[in-house]
């Protein structure tokens, strides 16, 4: 399995800097920890912890979680896994998708009092004295972004948070937020299959000096080539539900045709389809640090190998031709109402 030869240590492999006004240096590739606790089939805490440890050993230092994952248990898992290696990690978590302990979804909450309470609860679960990058998970349409970010800024002033982020925010919201307090990074879905932010959001980030942390950079696993039908996923895996139209029925059949094109290009390049798809995301700029999620070491090591895949202009052109934006079938979510537009 190919592993990178770049620098390792507190800044991780092939370090990249998110943000210019409030910069945070992270590993070029991070690790999304959500699936270790919920949503993507069965999970095993021991295997998940071993995967986090292997990530750190490889120099993957940007770890991403959220209070809603589990709910709450993912933060506990991540916190326990890094307890003796806190200085090696850029720890990111999120608030705003409010859930109860039984998993009931309450809604999006951006009220200042909730921001403060959520942060304190996350710090306790993670077992740390500060969060490196604290995101608003979804924009609350009922609370002015200035009020939410103002409360987040108070957490920085209190020493509880080092840098601020948004997730799935529109260009207009990003501008208003950044005018309130410097935003270091935006976390949004971005992959060969999800490129809508290229129209307005990405240019806005570049104008303001804000980094991009793409989640689902492998199209929720589709771009790895490992998913060939709905039956490729475990029972209970949320991707089998209608909530992910690209992963079911007509959408899946159409999108698998595109995956096959990526597979052919990857074979010619001497890498896996997933590595090629990740290399494409990494090639979108030095201010981009994707966080592919996995709960198993072999997939982690495969993802890290993408850092050694160098794409030429011809390669990028071939990928653009193989996966045109308009060819992807299905919305990212069955219900897009929580996405700020």
Automatic annotation (TrEMBL):
Keywords: Oxidoreductase. InterPro entries: Aldo-Keto_reductase, NAD(P)_OxRdtase_dom_sf, NADP_OxRdtase_dom. The keyword GTP-binding does not apply. It comes from the Bacteria. Residues 1-12 have a biased composition (Low complexity). CDD domains: AKR_AKR13A_13D (cd19076). Residues 29-321 form the NADP-dependent oxidoreductase domain. Residues 1-20 are annotated as: Disordered. This is Aryl-alcohol dehydrogenase-like predicted oxidoreductase. It comes from Nocardioides salarius.
